[in-house]
Amino acid sequence: MDMILKGGRVITASDSFIADVAVKDGKIVAIGKELSDTADKVVDVTGKYVLPGAIDAHTHMAMPFGGTVSSDSYLSGTRAAVCGGVTTIFDYPVQHKGETILGLCGSKDEVLKEEACCDYAFHCCITDLNDGDILNEMEQAVEKGITSFKCFLVYKKEGMMVDDGTLARLLLRAKELGAMINVHAENPDLIDLRTEQFLREGKTSAWYHYLSRPEFVEAEADKRVVHLASHLDTPVYIVHMADEEGLEACIEAKKKGHDIYVETCPQYLEFTCDVYKREDGRNFVCSPPMKGQASQDALWRAIKAGLIDTVATDHCPFQSYEKDWGKDDFTKIPNGCAGVENLYPYMLSAANEGKLSFEKVVELCATNVAKIFGCTDKGSIAVGKDADLVVYDPEKEFTISASNMHSDCDHTIWEGKKLHGYPVQTYLRGQLVYDNGEFVGTPGIGRYIKRAKYSKK
Ligand code: URP
Ligand code: ZN
Ligand code: ZN
Ligand code: ZN
């Protein structure tokens, strides 16, 4: 045995119990009481919790957006990930019009081979079917283990938007291939209409970012996606759900047996649209925006009822000077916030405060993600799985600040947030990569995850 984590409380999606966890060649090889101590390394984790590494299903590292590029490189973004207990990220490479998707993901893979500090997979964003060539190429992508694709129903001027016909073609083709389509759902025409009106009236503060895309603007698109997927009888995964009415449509369809998956993000669980009234409101600008209290309450209710499938971050940071471009015009603020290092600590702190169970957090942030997206070796503490392990100290008090984060970003929307409990160690396939506040891994240690095809849970 290479290592034993001894005496901790092991948390899975369905259970929690005191046990030792033994690791050999990067895999979990035994779980049990009083395993023999004949390992090269024995770590006493009495009083601590042992959790599977989180899988952040939604990140944008080095993503071109709004005239710049999101500030975390693959190196700094994956470094931040492991420091927050995330051992696998899903990145979203975005196809430029005319580009092949294998070429696109291949070029990202080249960079990640050198820089990745955690394991990684791709949801490839399709913006153009290239006269149908992409529908063919999707088959090769699936063979290479890229078994999910994304489309944006917004971001027309950024050249990323697809229309409903393209979405429908992608849904049908993905079903044929055993793949999933992830959708960013907001209504672009309503956003344009409202934005033009606000700018004409001189209403340019960050608050109007929210008012240009409030609840009903997201809900319309959520409902459209659910309607299409239900009638076409295809699975679909709606990313970053933030509004109550759209969520209700998803829940209704789920209850009828449709294959609808819902992801939300910590920022929607913590903040409401009131943040856009703050002096630093532009730092919170992301799309979809934070919504009102009723939506936040609905998200928490759905989480507790098991009607939300995953929590992921939509990590997409920009530096303050870039956010400042939109001081006098909300349309010039690059959209997105940092979060990859906050996902697990935030959700686990909520569990520590009794808001939900630790098992539920493991399910939402690791086990369900692995199941939905075909990461067969990941997402739980079980014999044969990768030894992606997080040691969590439920007594450690931690206050989030830009200065104790590991992202390449000079601010955080989580500044000053007090957490009860915090990860103290992260192991990636048995190797220590984060230790008590410090990144101790090596860039390039992360591996590409070849994923299995989608099959219904
Ligand atoms: O504001 C956001 N979310 N930026 C990243 C791109 C996206 O929409 O996911
Ligand atoms: Zn999005
Ligand atoms: Zn209908
Ligand atoms: Zn995103």
From TrEMBL:
Modifications made to the protein after synthesis: Carbamylation allows a single lysine to coordinate two divalent metal cations.
Cellular component, GO, one term: cytoplasm
Pfam families: Amidohydro_1
Known cofactor(s): Zn(2+)
Modified residues (N6-carboxylysine): 150
InterPro entries the record matches: Amidohydro-rel, Hydantoinase/dihydroPyrase, Metal-dep_hydrolase_composite, Metal_Hydrolase, Metallo-dep_Hydrolases_sf
Keywords: Hydrolase, Metal-binding
Highest taxon of source: Bacteria
GO MF term set: hydrolase activity, acting on carbon-nitrogen (but not peptide) bonds; metal ion binding
Stated name of the protein: Dihydropyrimidinase
Organism encoding this protein: Eubacterium oxidoreducens
Lineage: Bacteria, Bacillati, Bacillota, Clostridia, Eubacteriales
